[in-house]
Design brief:
This protein has 274 residues and is α/β, with parallel strands linked by helices. The chain has helices spanning 3-12, 50-54, 58-61, 87-100, 113-124, 146-153, 163-172, 179-192, 198-202, 220-229, 259-271; strands at 18-24, 27-34, 38-43, 65-71, 106-111, 129-135, 208-213, 233-238. It has a single domain, classed as Alpha/Beta hydrolase fold, catalytic domain (Rossmann fold). The chain is 38% helix and 19% strand. The termini are far apart.
Length: 274
């Protein structure tokens, strides 16, 4: 395991994290809970885990929120099952988990692929969503940097996965040998997902905060367009930040960076209804 991935996992791990499983839509889904307060659902990025996406900021968030952090089909502790990956299915699985936990009117904080899942959740299950924070979120293929779109056109290759994500998957997955399947299914999903339309986005009534990095694989102009298309949108572009560096994701974290603390202030201000 790389030193950075290990550092993130060690910083995240602790006795307050409680891992559980719930069977939803035929999937034995792993999720973690910590903290108290208004529910805040964390939706990790593609190929990620709860720890790799949110390990840096989750302990602070748990000081004022009841965190509910699932790992999606085939990701982290959640084993894969015999069905494709899709943002719609992940949204429905998340909704089923929240129903099992008796949670409604929750805030949602999502990163990267998790943001598309969050948008689908708000469209398909609007009663479950109060406010949305979309970190490096996209709603259409055109919002992804050309080099990333080109990468998804090449044959799926686990070796091309960011080492921090690959190491973290192998460390916690019930079947580490399934990594190639996860990569193959993820590439298929990224090639074939349906863009959300402006009409779709205008249906989302929850307030939305879109956060992006100025060096992100999601184009900053796409983040701005997303914030403008939803009825109640705001946008923040973080300076000098690659994909997720502003929240300290394992694949992009910059040791000693103050950006995660700044981003936390933005998120807390938004969730508090500033």
């Amino acid at each position: 395991m790389s030193a950075l991935a290990l550092a993130v996992l060690l910083a995240y791990a602790g006795p307050v994290a409680q891992g559980s499983y719930a069977t939803v839509n035929g999937l034995r889904m792993y999720y973690e809970e910590r903290g108290h307060g208004r529910p805040l659902v964390l939706l990790h990025g593609g190929g990620s885990t709860v720890a790799t996406s949110f390990g840096v900021i989750m302990p602070k968030l748990a000081q004022g929120h009841r965190i509910i952090a699932p790992e999606q089909q085939g990701h982290g502790h959640t084993a894969d099952i015999d069905r494709p990956l899709s943002f719609e299915q992940m949204a429905d699985d998340t909704a089923a988990l929240l129903e099992r936990l008796g949670v409604r009117d929750a805030d949602v904080l999502a990163f990267s692929n998790g943001s598309m899942t969050a948008l689908r959740l708000a469209l398909r299950h609007p009663e479950l969503v109060r406010r949305l924070v979309l970190c490096s979120g996209f709603y259409a293929h055109a919002g992804l940097a050309p080099e990333l779109r080109q990468a998804f056109e090449r044959p799926p290759d686990p070796a091309a996965m960011p080492p921090a994500l690959r190491d973290a998957y192998v460390a916690v997955a019930p079947h580490p040998e399934a990594l190639a399947t996860l990569v193959t299914k993820t590439v298929a999903m990224m090639r074939g997902f349906a863009d959300l339309t402006p009409a779709d986005l205008r249906r989302i009534q929850a307030p939305v905060l879109v956060i992006d990095g100025d060096r992100d694989v999601v184009l900053p102009e796409h983040a701005l367009q997303l914030a403008r298309l939803v009825p109640h949108g705001e946008v923040a572009v973080m300076p000098g930040s690659a994909h997720g560096a502003y929240i300290g994701t394992a694949e992009s974290a910059v040791p000693g960076s103050r950006l995660p603390a700044v981003t936390l202030e933005l998120i807390e201000g938004f969730l508090g209804g500033r």
